Amino acid sequence: MTEVSVAKEEVAATGDLVVLKSVNKHFGALHVLQDIDLTIARGEVVVVIGPSGSGKSTLCRTINRLETIDSGSITIDGKPLPHEGKELARLRADVGMVFQSFNLFAHKTVLENVTLGQVKVRKKDKKAAEERARALLDRVGVGAQAEKYPAQLSGGQQQRVAIARALAMEPKVMLFDEPTSALDPEMINEVLEVMQQLARDGMTMIVVTHEMGFARSAANRVVFMADGRVVEQASPDQFFSNPRSDRAKDFLSKIL
Ligand code: ADP
Ligand code: MG
């Protein structure tokens, strides 16, 4: 993989990057996020796991303001999340997000997918943006696909393009919401390897995944959610070998 500087400042700097304090969120009568307190340090890789419906996706979506919160606060790099306009577009660039479904622009080439946001939001000139896009596409192993359209790529390739597109914006933190769960099994590893490399390079990452191998090898911390609450947080070693809560024990007994 080609070396591209993505997260230098994240490696160099220290301190808390993403801070959630007493965050609450309802969908009608459903209290989907309940008093969430969560702090993610610069360069930290946090894996979020928990049963379906526990609020993991909603948690991710509040951090780049795809969902609003009812009470509490979320800050990134010490600043509260903006509400609208250009500030919001910049936030979405600062907080790269990779979803289960690949969400590429179907009518744009791979190269255009990775170039557009750089020009529109980061105000780069087209040539510099394309150069960075090609370097990132090489880095995630799809450089040869640059002129193709998403539908011509495999799911694993599309997901790697989605990662490159987020990285092109020079995000401060990357959110991954079950990035491999829609992939055919033989494509899961190629995506996890890109994420592993990103983690090693010092990117701050919040990763919702059921890939426990990834959690064990890449995560600094596991956050276990159930029923809209953070029930338990621990190092992967401690969490997998010695979960403290009954909810976590029960969950692990079903998936391991
Ligand atoms: P997870 O990602 O852990 O499976 P989600 O955050 O997707 O959980 O969902 C948590 C709960 O909130 C679920 O009960 C889900 O049905 C509900 N939910 C999610 N999004 C919405 C929405 N936009 N409107 C109403 N309910 C929602
Ligand atoms: Mg989810």
Automatic annotation (TrEMBL):
Record keywords:
Amino-acid transport, ATP-binding, Cell membrane, Membrane, Nucleotide-binding, Transport
Q: What topology does it adopt in the membrane? A: Peripheral membrane protein
Any GO MF annotation of the entry: ATPase-coupled polar amino acid-transporter activity
Q: Where in the numbering of this chain does the ABC transporter domain appear?
A: 18-252
EC? Answer: 7.4.2.1
PROSITE patterns assigned: ABC_TRANSPORTER_1, ABC_TRANSPORTER_2
GO CC terms in record: plasma membrane
Cross-referenced SMART domains: AAA
User: Which chemical reaction does it catalyze?
Assistant: a polar amino acid(out) + ATP + H2O = a polar amino acid(in) + ADP + phosphate + H(+)
| Location in or out of the cell | Cell membrane
Q: Which PANTHER family match?
A: AMINO ACID IMPORT ATP-BINDING PROTEIN, GLUTAMATE_ASPARTATE IMPORT ATP-BINDING PROTEIN GLTL
What protein family is recorded? Belongs to the ABC transporter superfamily.
Q: What is this protein called?
A: ABC-type polar-amino-acid transporter
Q: Which organism is it from?
A: Streptomyces toyocaensis
